[in-house]
User: Which sequence fits this backbone?
């Protein structure tokens, strides 16, 4: 292909991470000619700097912790070089040949470079122009947001990218933030040998978007593992002096570390997309309807992190499937139905935090349900009442909460905290997304003796209150 030619497609997608790939898969399978544009590695943030490498770092940590809770098992220390090598394998050593092969294998044209919108249904990649007959899809994701601290760039701070791709374990690591990235990386690096200090600006503690007990139990475990967690403090200054980072706090204290990780939020990758050519503001999150169509347009879609609905890979892939179906339906002139609308974004989002203990949730927290105007009741159960939990781990510590809508008698949200609960959460997701009546859940009998028996304990607690 000539570097300066103009090419026509039915659909043009900017961003070849898992979200963009899923849109491409759906539109191509529907018979629409599809092009996808990527400025970095095909496979995106999740494959190389987020989901896959972070879980590869955490899996040995959690496996050892679980084994230590089983009588008769005496696991040794973690082999740090082997853990890092396994992580490197899961990222394909930051090479995207396999992902490129998949894109080409489904018949989608891949363009390397920065994709920019250049007017309605038009995308440029270098000197090439790609014209979309039906839809342009923005799937560029998000990036780490750094605070405006003087001299921060000179400190060479870690973000999630550096934390998940580091080739050595620092002796001392300061983690700024209390969200998912902060607690997962604190868990991993404390176990791998770092002395970790977690600095949380507010007084709400860790995992502020989950039920309060989730952050409390994770903080308790991190502290027992040797990490220091400080809440109600802010970073006022940072400076690198030789190999050390000096972190000045608003209290006047100074904390020293070898590396500092800022896990203080995300920002949309929309600042260099040419949004101004179609009346949108560069650098903003893109507002969409439930078919993922950008507000005020009939051709531009925004899928995944970039629309700020749920910054989770699995939720972005769900949106991608919805968007692909919606685009296809509109092209064919067919009616839109539930298969073309991302309703789960509003009430049935699942999430797992891979700490020790794990924290997993689906749907609304108690506070979110009440804020939405639902008349609800929460029931809490300790996992110590579940026989299967005691078999899973000696001294199993954890808690579950079920939020029940008292008017509709359905489950609005569920939160589990404890070892292995990530594998429980899909049952909660089905209950929430399917609006399963509580009286029907009595007939979903959990196998004995598994930790899924917590469902029976929750239903009993709801009945007996």
Assistant:
């Amino acid at each position: 292909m000539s570097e300066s030619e103009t090419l026509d497609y039915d659909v043009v997608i900017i961003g070849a991470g898992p979200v963009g790939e899923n849109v491409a898969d759906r539109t191509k399978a529907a018979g629409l000619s599809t092009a996808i544009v990527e400025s970095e590695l095909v496979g995106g943030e999740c494959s190389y700097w987020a989901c896959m490498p972070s879980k590869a770092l955490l899996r040995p940590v959690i496996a050892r912790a679980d084994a230590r809770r089983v009588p008769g098992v005496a696991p040794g220390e973690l082999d740090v070089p082997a853990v890092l090598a396994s992580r490197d394998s899961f990222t394909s050593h930051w090479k995207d040949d396999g992902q490129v092969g998949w894109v080409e294998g489904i018949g989608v044209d891949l363009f390397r470079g920065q994709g920019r919108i250049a007017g309605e249904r038009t995308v440029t990649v270098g000197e090439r122009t790609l014209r979309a007959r039906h839809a342009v899809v923005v799937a560029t994701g998000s990036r780490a947001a750094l605070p405006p601290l003087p001299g921060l760039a000179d400190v060479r701070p870690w973000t999630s990218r550096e934390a998940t791709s580091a080739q050595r374990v620092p002796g001392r690591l300061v983690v700024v933030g209390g969200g998912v990235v902060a607690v997962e990386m604190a868990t991993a690096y404390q176990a791998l040998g770092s002395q970790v200090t977690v600095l949380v600006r507010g007084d709400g503690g860790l995992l502020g978007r989950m039920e309060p007990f989730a952050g409390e139990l994770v903080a308790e475990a991190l502290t027992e593992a040797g990490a220091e967690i400080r809440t109600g403090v802010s970073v006022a200054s940072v400076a690198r002096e030789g190999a050390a980072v000096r972190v000045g706090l608003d209290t006047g204290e100074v904390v020293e570390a070898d590396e500092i990780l800022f896990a203080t939020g995300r920002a949309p990758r929309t600042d260099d997309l040419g949004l101004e050519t179609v009346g949108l503001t560069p650098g903003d999150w893109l507002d969409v309807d439930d078919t993922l169509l950008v507000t005020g347009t009939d051709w531009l879609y925004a899928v995944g992190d970039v629309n700020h609905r749920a910054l989770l890979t699995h939720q972005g892939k769900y949106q991608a499937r919805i968007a692909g179906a919606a685009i296809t339906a509109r092209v064919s002139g067919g009616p839109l139905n539930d298969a073309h609308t991302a309703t789960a974004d509003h009430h049935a989002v699942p999430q797992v935090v891979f700490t020790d203990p794990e924290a997993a949730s689906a749907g609304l927290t108690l506070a979110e349900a009440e804020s939405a105007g639902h008349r609800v009741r929460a029931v809490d159960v300790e996992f110590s009442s579940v026989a299967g939990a005691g078999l899973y781990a000696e001294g199993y510590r954890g808690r579950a909460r079920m939020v029940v809508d008292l008017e509709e008698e359905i489950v609005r949200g569920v939160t589990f905290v404890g070892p292995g609960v990530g594998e429980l959460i899909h049952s909660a997701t089905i209950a929430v997304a399917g609006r399963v009546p509580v009286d029907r859940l009595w007939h979903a009998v959990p196998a004995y003796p598994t930790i899924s028996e917590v469902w029976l304990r929750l239903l009993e607690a709801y009945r007996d209150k």
Summary: The two ends are 70 Å apart (CA to CA). The mean pLDDT is 97.
